[in-house]
Amino acid sequence: MTATSSALAADSAGRSLPSGSEFDVIVVGSGIGGLVAATQLAAKGAKVLVLERYLIPGGSAGYFDREGYRFDVGASMIFGFGSQGTTNLLTRALNAVGMQMETIPDPVSVHYHLPNDLNLQVHRDYEKFLQELTARFPHEEQGLRQFYDECWRVFNCLNAMELLSLEEPRYLTRVFFQHPFACLGLVKYLPQNVGDIARRYIHDPELLKFIDMECYFWSVVPADRTPMINAGMVFSDRHYGGINYPKGGVGQIAQKLVEGLEKAGSHIQYRSRVVEILMEGKRAIGVRLASGETYRAKRVVSNATRWDTFEHLLSSEQRPNSEAKWQQRYQKSPSFFSLHMGIKAEVLPSGTDCHHILLENWDDLEAAYGTVFVSIPTLLDPDLAPPGHHILHVFTCSWMEEWQGLSASAYQQKKEAVASEILQRLERIFPGVEAGLDYQEAGTPRTHRRFLGRIDGTYGPIPRRKLLGLLGMPFNRTAVPGLYCVGDSTFPGQGLNAVAFSGFACAHRIAVDLGFRAKP
Fold first, then answer.
1. Phi and psi, residue 147, nearest 5°
2. d(C-alpha 325, C-alpha 400), whole Å
3. How many CB atoms lie within 10 A of CB 47?
């Protein structure tokens, strides 16, 4: 082992770098957006330090082990691992630092169990999906195809060009001359939302509610508040690059990115909670940790939420007015109540799909505990559970307010009551699930706040009202010189592939600002 690799191993094991060390870029937080930004910069030769408050990287794309089970912290429906086009951002991010990952294709991205026995599967095969949907809504066959074909037009525009920083004029000029029609197409869709476009073609009220659910399960808002750019990516890439689960669990994505980061000569340091962004005049020049160490950098990137970044890491005097205006347009999304369960394999009938969504009443779509999301990743990777068992990860929206101010016993009782109610609902699609339980652990918004360091455990920002598509979403640069943001609080928003996009864009903008170019 070389001296350099020995030092990096020590960093990963938790030993701090010397206080006062200087870097080209410091990244606060090791969520996927932060890690993609860090690895892209490291691949260009920048000296990067990633500071992570927890013991492992990944944030909500992390993992934890319990009694022979390896649980994903968040969702296991993963986009971005395709092998063609330019929207396969996770594949590209790993390749940039010489990493690859074995993945397992999922033939059905989601199996819906919705009101009025609306029970259908979203097959990887696009035509098969449309056929199943039009069998339920034969009178909307033309409108359905027109709507989803329009989503494909958005996706094809995105998939025609390299996805980098929209804040970099030379990139915009170059990509426009290379792909003028794709650029004009994206400009057309930037201010549009899914609901408006869906109503151009579809008139059946139940089918429009289904489109709301198609948006809600990944954006946590219905179609009228979901940007068409994001939907075009999700609704099409599930049939193009497809859903591909990482062998060994979702946490392997962050682990591989960290391995590539270190091989490129940069650093990650765990147990390093940033409590302050250091300023020199009006410019961000470094960070201070809770332990007292300080680190300096030419640029600072925050992978925290914008609320955590501007309300907790900067003083009120340093907070730009633009953030108050942004908060007039966006609010914190709910967090989640999560059940991580191990169950006996015989509970699941043959042919069970990996991902499910359960809703009994359309009026409860956005309500706390209304829509239930289910992931069974061991149907794709059995090695994540003991032999003869499966993982059942169930999560549903919940707000921090109802979990505050409870005594320890009241908190535990509430967790047990909510878990029991969800299990009863799951019996509808998995009879015998409660009797087949081998392990169960519940998490609340308080859990998400504690381990992920996200204010109120929020999933990210959502529009307070209907906005003009993505036009209100901020890019990576902030009003504070030297400070950038990355992740779900920046363009294009939430979801693993979306935050990877944000990481590519942030790294590109900083590389141009600092004069770094890709290594030959």
1. -65, -55
2. 24
3. 17
